[in-house]
Amino acid sequence: MVTTGLPNFANYPLKYRKSLLKRGGGPSLNLMPELSWNHVCQVREHWKGNLIVKGILRKEDALKAIDVGAQGIVISNHGGRMFDSSVPPIEVLREIADSVGHELTVLADSSIQRGSDIFKLIAAGAKAVLVGRSMLYATAAGGRQGAMQMMQILSDELAMTMDLSGCRTLADIDESLLFRGQY
Fold this sequence. Notes:
The protein is 40% helix and 8% strand. By secondary structure, it is an alpha/beta fold. The chain has a four-stranded parallel beta sheet, with helices on one face. Helix 2 (59-67) packs across helix 3 (89-100) and helix 4 (115-123) crosses helix 5 (132-165). The longest helix has 34 residues, at 132-165.
């Protein structure tokens, strides 16, 4: 923070940029309930690169993502910060991953705090896991070095969880290693 100031949303258009403390910038980017799959189709028309749709929690939406030409989806409830009673991604991940097969790359996120969280999401069907909020906090606290340290901690914890589960590679992680019942 001493050298570059408060982190901000640098990828936003200039008039919308604010610091993490919501200082500066213009109007807020608020929730837009009128967004629809038609908007995703418009993005697809103009964007020829890989399209990944985030916030999927139902297999019907995952199948719709295929229909609109997406290459990937992120199973996410946005860390539960948008709606605290939404289904946890791990609860729907297997059903969604099975419904899209190899037609989409399935990613997952939502409140990744430990390497074992990564392990669980991969076991439930994710090809990769996003750790955005952890990265944001680590970068805010320690810059590049903080982010690198956070990634090392998660990597070490994932390796420990894999060792404890008898997995030598990520490909060895599967759903049989997850407890799904009641005590």
